[in-house]
Amino acid sequence: MPLIAVVGRPNVGKSTLFNRLVGKRLALVDDRPGVTRDRREGEGRLGDLTFRIVDTAGLESAADGSLEARMRQQTEAAIAEADVVLFVIDARAGVTADDVRFADLVRRASSPVILLANKAEGHAGRDGAYDAYSLGLGDPLPVSAEHGEGLGDLYDALQPFFPEPSDEDEDEETGEGAPLRIAIVGRPNAGKSTLVNRLVGEERMLTGPEAGITRDSVSIDWEWRGRRVRLVDTAGLRRKARVIDKLEKLSVADAIRSIKFAEVVVVLLDATIPFEKQDLSIADLVAREGRALVFGLNKWDLVEDRGEAMKRHREALDRLLPQVKGAQMVALSGQTGEGVDRLMTAVQTAHEVWNRRVSTAALNRWLEGVLERHPPPAVAGKRIKLRYATQPKARPPFFVIFGTRTEELPDSYVRYLINGLRETFDMPGAPIRLTFRTPDNPYDTKG
Question: Which Gene Ontology BP terms does the record give (predicted)?
């Protein structure tokens, strides 16, 4: 079982992350720095990955022989023994001198390092996360250990370091051979379990007229057209105000966790009453988590005047959820099997878009054309300059544009840029991420 060490300076949230991954409050957590002194080990789990994980004392500069120096030795020993090191910084505080110093120590170790920018919720956290590029430890993963955000990206980063169960299965869990992870979510009684049974071809899930039969998120390994699929049926998600029962709260948390670990999420709607407020809340959650998104209009066998209904639903989708404009919407019936194959084709297409990368050259040709046709508006008589663009990652497509005074860009212009990316590079429905940065040298006019 792989050994993962969580390291970083004091008070960056290492113990909170440790507790999140072991699923228990094993490590003491407090706002005061230096609570953790000894290495604490537990068995962690992230999706279908299991591992030993070690929480360590915060790395500090200290005199030889002192308590802090002995604590640091314990941490250095954990780094030496680890198969993977999670180097954690506080995104809200940005990169500190201690972070830079200890990044050099971690870089010299033989173990692979994954850089985590913790406490990355909110604008301040996201900005600090981008500063972490300067540490030279690869792309930082923005996470929030306290809120459980960003764990899907951590799963993807960890997966290559896990041994496969047998030689026959080599390379099947990563890369092109990995199972496609699909979560089916929606309001209670939208027909999720009936759809899952229809997809896998057996009565795998309990179904019935009562809402809320499914409580746990159930994972089913399956194959579609030769492609391995891990299908997750989830509990129905009601409005938060109506979730009172403790068991239902656990079921909802489990469903939300399934969204975080999915690659594609099918939001299943009841075609007779689609796009209620809760449907929109669920879709917005999926988009904020950055998952690929497909809408399934279930119970289509009960709909009359289907052409008019589809036109009406398509217009409603683009109007109510502009952040996933162009997302695929498939009419289907889990009861009769109509449209189920089209749904899986849409899922595969959405997954391809979600993984799409655009070359830097193509991006900058696009940006040059945008600036010629529609330059950013001047603010207080001063021009906003956008210099160059790049795509540091996919899953979902994530773009960074460098320039000056970018914090003053109006929201309308940012939406214009996102829509331009979506249309130019054929990314319908993708939850595109776009952020802006100022070059390190404010006098740099290159690019």
Answer: ribosome biogenesis
CATH of domain 360-437: 3.30.300.20
Determine whether the annotation assigns residue 234 to a binding site.
yes
- Residue 355 labeled ligand binder: no
* Residue 301 annotated as lining a ligand binding site: yes
Residue 165 annotated as part of some ligand binding site: no
318 is in an annotated binding site: no
Please give the average per-residue pLDDT across 52-75, as a whole number. 63
Please state which CATH class domain 179-352 belongs to: alpha beta
Output the DSSP codes for 79-112: HHH-SEEEEEEETTT---HHHHHHHHHHHHSSS-
Residue 56, marked binder: yes
**Residue 263: Cβ within 10 Å count:** 21
241 annotated among ligand-binding-site residues = no
372 is annotated as contributing to ligand binding: no
Q: How far is residue 19's CA from residue 34's CA, in Å, rounded to a whole number?
A: 16
Give 135-162 pLDDT, tens digit per residue. Answer: 888 888 999 988 888 888 899 899 888 8
- Residue 206 confidence (pLDDT) above 50: no
Task: Report whether 19 belongs to an annotated binding site.
Answer: no
Would the annotation count 127 as a binding residue? Answer: no
